[in-house]
Amino acid sequence: MCRFHSLQIKKIRRGNDIQGFTLQDQNAGYYTSETMQYPIAKFEIANLYEELFKRNVELRVVDSLWNIYDEIQKTTLNWSMCRMRFAQSRK
Predict the structure, then answer these.
(1) Residues 6 or more apart from 70 whose CB is under 8 A from it?
(2) Which candidate, 82, 7, 1, places its Cα nearest to that of 48?
(3) Which residues, in sequence order, are CB contacts of 48 under 8 Å at separation 6+?
(4) What is residue 10's predicted lDDT score, i.e. its pLDDT?
(5) What would the DSSP string read from start to end of 7-68?
(6) Mean pLDDT over all residues of the chain?
(7) Which of 26, 39, 70, 76 has the lowest CB atom count within 10 Å?
(8) SS3 state at 70
(9) Nearest 5 degrees, angle CA 18-CA 77-CA 22?
(10) What pLDDT sits at residue 56?
């Protein structure tokens, strides 16, 4: 079972309310803030897969991300692979 089966989410901002945040990386969608931010809501999700399914999200589980990484490099797709440093080593 995936370790993310259940989790807790702290919501910092609503929707497109980005006041107090600066866009750090448009490609990845990262916003940062120079000031302390406090959650406006907290949600407990008991079954992550069920919640994703309700939102029509397609989830694919693969043995390795490296094949996808290699293929994306050959395209003009703006895609962030910055977290690949956490991926398992190539086999």
Answers:
(1) none
(2) 7
(3) 2, 4, 5, 6, 7
(4) 64
(5) EEEEE-S-TT--TT-EEEETTTTEEE-SS----SEEEEES-HHHHHHHTT------S-SHHH
(6) 80
(7) 76
(8) helix
(9) 20
(10) 93
Please give the Cα distance from 71 to 68 (Å, whole number).
Answer: 5
Q: Is the pTM of this model over 0.85?
A: no
Yes or no: say if 9 and 52 are a contact pair by the CB < 8 Å rule: no
Determine the residue type at 8. Q
Task: Please determine, for residue 17, whether its predicted confidence score (pLDDT) is greater than 80.
Answer: no
Residue whose structure tokens are 């989790």? 7
